[in-house]
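Bench notes, afternoon.
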Amino acid sequence: GGGGGGMAAEGDVELELETEPNGAGSGGDGAGGRAAEKPRKHDSGAADLERVTDYAEEKEIQSSNLETAMSVIGDRRSREQKAKQEREKELAKVTIKKEDLELIMNEMEISRAAAERSLREHMGDVVEALITLTN
């Protein structure tokens, strides 16, 4: 039963802790003192203004970086666009059967465009297209 005794001791410690906040609470003057400090908040307007100007300066720096970034992204986009157009041209050359197209539309319940696209991507191979769509 020695262990049991240890538990009781722990309980005692907890009780002591519980009484502490009440002791602090009775010193309610501390809270009152805090309230008296409140009016100082009005002076923080100047600090806020400083923060705003800092922010504005940062923004200017960022926007110049942004322009550089945008042009880089723009270049990449136009390259991707070109590649896409090439791919679309290649896909457009693929001959697909109307019945294959309708089969996919019915089987997968997808739009004509989606069905046609997957068919073209698989060089008109309806089986391949269906396999990919089911995965």
